[in-house]
Amino acid sequence: MATMDAIHGEIRLSPLCAAFCGHPHFQRLRRVRQIGSGVLVFPGAHHTRYQHSLGVCELARRMLDSLGVAAPALREGVLLAALCHDIGHAPFSHAFDRFGEVQFEHEERSQHLLLKMYEDLKEHPAVRGVLDPAAARWAAHLIDPDRQLSASPEPYLEQIVNNVNIMDVDKLDYLMRDCQHLTGQALRIDVYGIIDRCAVCEGQLAFAAQDAPLLRQLLDLRTRFHRRYYCDPRVEASGWMLAQLVHGHLRAGGADYGELGRFSRAVAALDDSIIDDLAAAPGPLRPLAQRIQQGQWMRHLRDVRHPPAGADENEVVFTWDVEVSKHTSGRALPRIPFHAAGEAAASPAPGPPAGSLLYRVFRQ
Length: 364
Fold this sequence. Notes:
By secondary structure, the chain is α+β, with helices and mostly antiparallel strands. Helices cover 46% and strands 11% of the residues. The chain has helices spanning 15-21, 24-27, 38-41, 49-67, 72-84, 94-98, 106-121, 133-143, 169-183, 191-196, 212-230, 233-252, 260-267, 274-280, 286-293, 329-332; strands at residues 2-5, 9-12, 199-201, 204-208, 299-304, 315-320, 338-340, 343-345, 358-363.
């Protein structure tokens, strides 16, 4: 299967990945916006989780080539994890998990749904004989290795899609893609060169020491995007309201929040069209859906460095970690392994303290 992508050009999927791409759980991502409620504030950023997932799969293919991974079973597992890493996202993406009480976040839901897709597709000609239950479980494991669903033959394979050492193909694609759609300009950092210069060093995925300044630029860009776009007060306000809307709909329908399978399937039955559906349908959630549609969002009052005292029942308070996130360059770069000509190289020293946790106060 081949398709054209606005960021990477032609993307070719293996027959196995193409089979999973055709499954309804993956096709749903065409109707889930990449930046969630951000599309309500920045309407040019209408790109989807579907496009992003294809892009992550393409960058994973390039990373595998760079690292010299030739074994078909290893390649297919990593590519499948890259393709399906976001299938568990709820409508409007991260707002659902951030502003709602969920036991199973999107990574765990994605793992469950990938295994469900495998059960649906295991007799497909492109799947049978290529992916067995153990291999499918390993692919699901790669979506979030911390959950220990399986074991990897090499640690670096766990660091391509979701890297405990911070930088991975998921982040690289969304920075390229979000930059294009939010700013109207292509990212002016050679991401392909960064990937091509990666190597396996002491069992870890290592970036070339010469690329440390570029990685710092990428991490600083991520922080700027959080300040300017992802956490714009209007995005946060509409995101909180959207989360209440989707959770209210699920709870009214009797969704089982305590059982991974049933909860994942309930989430996967929804997409971003829910706001239009609920705004048009009589019911208790209609006024909230119409408020969101009409831009009548909560009002941002202030950001403070200490828990606000005396908030009344009409105020909503939540935290914002933009200054203290593990992804700020001062915190992240020291965690990234580097190499020089295939030999381990020193990582940059930690940066100065970045600030403090912020508290955001809104009025409903």
